[in-house]
Structures are given as structure tokens and as C-alpha cells.
Amino acid sequence: MSNSSSLTAADLELLRRPLHGFLSVAAGPLPPQPRPVWFEATAEGAVQLFTGPDTLKVRQLSRDPRASLVVAAPVGERERWVSVTGRTTVEPDGAHDLCARLAARYWDLDDPVRARDLAEILAAEQVRLVIHPEAVRRYTY
User: Fold this and answer.
1) Residue 19 covered by a domain
2) What is the pTM of this model?
3) Domain total of the chain
4) How confident is residue 36, by pLDDT bands cut at 50, 70 and 90?
């Protein structure tokens, strides 16, 4: 396992794949309750995702902005994971654009059911969560 405070090129290669990340936020039940999420690594080295503004994770982040995201390679590949931990900001802008990019990455939007799913998400208010890495841990076996 190695540690740093920023994402490496190898980390970004893993994070740019359509994998689920598992988000944990501080100030929640003990132990934390990770949730699977879509995510995107930014050009600035942060990690962002979207959610509704009234979700439990947003309420918890308003009390304590610490969060972590863990992403692992799927079964059948060599074991590999990246964990990003840091202060998280809740941004009111950019969530719908992010959602559309991520839907295209994770879903086949030519499928009318998925296209309707995306339209429903875009019709709802969304915020963007941005994890600013303070610690990045990784493991490859």
C-alpha cells in the first residue's frame, strides 16, 4: 500500500473507468455507512459526484465536511484499489452537467429506459459534491 496527498496517473487511469465508488461521510452512524456512487476525477485532482440537496450525506457534510471514496478494480482483474479522503464542498453549480457526463459513462443512453431515467434525474434539483484530496491511499497486488 502507498500513500500520498494527490492522485497519480495510475490512480486516474482507474478512476476514469465506469466503476462504482463507495462514499463514506463523517458525522454519520458509527461505523460509517458507505454508499455506491458514480464519480469523476477532475483535471485539478479532486473527485466529484452529484446528489440531491436534501440527502442525508449533504446534511452530514454540512456538520462535518470529511468524506472518503474507495474505488476497486472488478473481480477478474488483479486486485487494485484507490481511496481518496479529504474535505468535501457542496457546490450548487455543475451537478446536471456532471450527471449527464456520468450517465453517458455508466449507461447506454440509446436505451429509452435509461434515457428516461436520466431525464428524471435532470428534472430534479442536484448539487455537486467535491472531495478535495488530503490523503490518497492505493494498493495493487
Assistant:
1) yes
2) 0.92
3) 1
4) very high
**Buried residues in 77-108 as b, exposed as e (16+ CB within 10 A):** eeebbbbbbbebebeeeebbebbeebbeeebe
| Ramachandran sector of residue 33 (left: φ over 0; alpha: ψ -120 to 50; beta: rest) | beta
Determine contact, residues 99/50, Cβ cutoff 8 Å: yes
State which residues form the domain around 60.
Answer: 2-94+126-140
Q: Is residue 34 packed enough to be buried (19+ CB in 10 Å), middle (13-18) or exposed (0-12)?
A: middle
Contacts of 3 (CB under 8 A, 6+ apart): 135, 136, 137, 138
70 strand-pairing partners: 22, 83
Element (H, E) at 14: helix 9-15
